[in-house]
Design a protein that fits this description.
This protein is 41% helix and 14% strand. It has 14 helices and 14 strands. Strands 3-2-1-4-5-7-11 form a seven-stranded parallel sheet, sandwiched between helices. The chain has a three-stranded mixed sheet with strand order 8-10-12. The relative contact order is 0.15.
Length: 358
């Protein structure tokens, strides 16, 4: 039986770009492509643009999830809608287990997590490179203690997804985006998160601020390279190359996939974006200087970002030494070097300002 595939988050930055690149990806044969949507307008868009079949069930209603997954014999789910809580993931995992029992088909669940969950914000090691192919990574995550309580929840979600998939006989993959940049190609949101936070805060305070001492770094990835890793994982699933051997797709406690071409220092990113903002000459920032945020600045940044001052560094700072290795095993090769995000700062700033909601 060919795999029927469900993509959630199709109106988002990552999910929309994934769907937009689907037709040109030359994927192996598969069954139907479904996209979870919230509105009739989104349903029309995924039909017309991508040839996907829209589903409209509530991902936080277990009975609705079961009907949507089981009735359509979905065997592969890409979950891109909630990196923090695990409710909808658990409902989908249980539904996949039912499909497996009824059809005998191998079933797969990919959870989209985030680099913050492998960073100083979540109590992950950051005094050395933390590789996504580290055989102890699951245990490291089990032992992490986040300095901020809010960041403990998504760490537990990663672990819960892996454990529940093991329990129900579902193959699991933890997909980890980082600082993603570049124009999204979907019908909905076309801008990212961290770069947007830098611009939002700078616009409110008329200056770019750093939130950390020293020169912490963070992994980066162009949105197209991020999308290609999603597709390369799916390609291996469809080809059946998921046995976990050398050069095959790893899953479960060894199935972490960071999408990153390398890392940059936050200071370099702040400087590039401050220079790009200042160069526009429209008075968004007073000049291209980057200053260290004091408590008063953090409070104002929090107001601009809609979060408490203590959460501001989580939005646009911190140290993450997570390093991508697993993607290489399945042939993923990013086409944009890490420094490209600095070279593209003017384009990124222009894109963000065009699309920011007032």
């Amino acid at each position: 039986m060919p795999h029927n595939i469900l993509i959630t988050g199709g109106s988002g930055y990552l999910g929309g770009t994934l769907l937009a690149r689907w037709a040109a990806a030359d994927l192996p044969p598969h069954g139907k492509l479904y996209a979870l949507v919230r509105t009739e307008q989104q349903a029309d868009a995924v039909r017309a643009r991508y040839g996907a079949l829209p589903l409209t069930f509530d991902p936080y209603d277990e009975a609705a999830v079961r009907r949507g997954v089981v009735d359509n014999e979905i065997t592969v789910i890409y979950h891109l809608i909630d990196a923090f809580k695990s409710d909808s993931q658990l409902y989908m995992i249980r539904a996949l287990a039912e499909v497996k029992k009824a059809t005998g088909q191998t079933v797969h669940f990919l959870h989209t997590s985030g680099a913050k969950i492998f960073s100083s914000h979540a109590g992950a090691p950051h005094d050395r490179n933390l590789r996504d192919d580290d055989p102890d990574l699951y245990q490291i995550q089990k032992e992490q203690k986040a300095p901020l309580t809010v960041m403990q929840t998504p760490v537990m979600t990663n672990n819960t997804v892996i454990e529940q998939c093991e329990l129900h006989g579902v193959k699991s993959y933890i997909f980890v985006p980082c600082i993603v940049y570049g124009r999204g190609e979907g019908f909905g949101n076309v801008i990212s998160i961290q770069t947007v936070a830098i611009v939002k805060a700078a616009k409110a305070l008329r200056r770019v601020y750093r939130t950390d001492e020293g020169r912490p770094t963070w992994p980066v990835c162009h949105v197209i390279d991020n999308t290609n890793l999603y597709l390369d994982i799916l390609r291996r699933i469809l080809l059946g190359g998921d046995g976990g051997g050398e050069g095959q797709l790893r899953s479960g406690r060894n199935g972490y996939y960071l999408a990153a071409s390398g890392s940059v220092a936050w200071d370099d990113l702040y400087a590039a974006m401050a220079a790009a903002l200042a160069k526009r000459g429209d008075g968004i920032v007073d000049d291209a200087r980057v200053e260290t945020a004091d408590r008063a600045a953090l409070e104002k940044m929090g107001e601009a970002l809609g979060c408490p001052a203590d959460i501001v560094p989580v939005q646009l700072g911190g140290n993450c030494t997570f390093t991508a290795k697993h993607g290489e095993e399945i042939g993923w090769r990013p086409t944009h070097k890490p420094g490209h995000i600095l070279e593209a700062a003017e384009d990124e700033v222009a894109l963000i300002l065009e699309n920011l909601e007032e």
